Amino acid sequence: MNFAIVLLLCLPWIYAEQSFSQELRDFDFGSSHQATVTTTYGVFEALTNGKGPFQLIFDTGAGVNVLNPALIAQLGLHSESSQAKLPAFGGPVESKAFHADDVRIGGLTLHHQAFYSVQMPWPDGKGPVGAVGYEIMRRLVVTIDYEHQQLTFYDPTSFT
Questions:
Q1: Distance from CA of residue 73 to its chain's centroid?
Q2: What is the C-alpha to C-alpha distance for residues 51 and 72, in angstroms, rounded to an integer?
Q3: How far apart are CA 87 and CA 151, in angstroms?
Q4: Which tens digits make up the pLDDT trace of 13-71?
Q5: pTM here?
Q6: Strand, helix or coil at 69?
Q7: Shortest CA distance to 65 belongs to which of 56, 54, 76, 73?
Q8: Parallel, antiparallel, or unpaired: how do β-strands 66-67 and 108-117 relate?
């Protein structure tokens, strides 16, 4: 009886572990198991589909990845979906998802990333052109070192 209860309690963990390895393993670090980038108040540089670098914000509250519509057009990203409503301050925002083949942040490469088209608040184009958050944090272990202005991304299978 106790064995059956323990097994039932472990099944969600076992399923989650299998699910992670199959669905969320869309990144690589090259020969390492981690990547560190310099950040200024959560802003860092990234390449998207080999172009850039572009400034992105690491926003722990961002439920989805977002990019400026002008950058999406410049990169020629293809739409993945019909209109969707994204929650935002001031009310929902209408948007579409677009597909990026890869996003490179330092030594980390994320493959097959979805970005929603959302106008960032810098009209002159001199600020960050997008934001990432949850989509990275659900795949990787992330540490934020405010003192040294660094973001470090770790492969969760090798994180100790």
A1: 20
A2: 12
A3: 26
A4: 333 343 444 456 799 998 788 999 999 999 999 999 999 999 999 999 999 999 999 99
A5: 0.80
A6: helix
A7: 56
A8: parallel
